[in-house]
Amino acid sequence: MTLLRDHDLARAFDHASHTYDHLTALNPGYRAGLLRSARRLALPDDGAGLHLLDLGCGTGASTRALLRAAPRARITAVDASAGMLRRALAKPWPARVRFLHLTAEEVDAAREGESPFDAVFAAYLFRNVTDPDAVLGSVRGILRPGGRFAAHEYSLSGSPVHRALWSAVCRGLVVPAGTLTGDRPLYRHLRHSVVAFDTAPEFAARLTRAGLTSVCVAPVAGWQTGIVHTFLARNGEPETTEERVR
């Protein structure tokens, strides 16, 4: 299958936006996993004084997780899909959260002349971009030295068992549910994009090649263990001993 990319993928998300929250709510642990990954950023003082970027925010589930993990932070959330952003904007948000219609490749514009971001959170993003290395380079460019990075991503462990489980769930649940809503192409893309993307060790190595430091990988809990992982890293400065034990 040819994967959806760029404008085609954005349009598919636009079309699916009206049912997206309902379908993800059927996934046990979906929101809990996002929150766990956001909390793994270990932002100090509830994020007070920090400016965070939610890269690929969708309908705002990842933004909500980031806000819960750092309730005193300022958050800029961006997404390439206008339909998903409309769903996000329809929800209640504090004034310190703003949304911008930008692709991952346009992320430099998210700063709007401000200082670099203190942390970047990217959920379910990197397997959907055409050039993940270029996007990682842009992320490093907008992240302050020593700033924190977390990706919450479908990235298989490399075990045949986890690959088989993912295929079975997609065949039995994900693609049929997406077909009922009229969004079969998007959910077929989801199935195949996960298989085609880096395994967890490969994506960790990609982060290191991009110049990020202190790279580590942690699985999520529940049925998605070995299928979804949190990837944590820093921008150029290794973490201190105090931060490492937090």
Automatic annotation (TrEMBL):
<keyword id="KW-0808">Transferase</keyword>
<keyword id="KW-0489">Methyltransferase</keyword>
<dbReference type="Pfam" id="PF01209">
    <property type="entry name" value="Ubie_methyltran"/>
</dbReference>
<protein>
    <submittedName>
        <fullName>Methyltransferase domain-containing protein</fullName>
    </submittedName>
</protein>
<dbReference type="GO" id="GO:0032259">
    <property type="term" value="P:methylation"/>
</dbReference>
<dbReference type="GO" id="GO:0008168">
    <property type="term" value="F:methyltransferase activity"/>
</dbReference>
<dbReference type="InterPro" id="IPR029063">
    <property type="entry name" value="SAM-dependent_MTases_sf"/>
</dbReference>
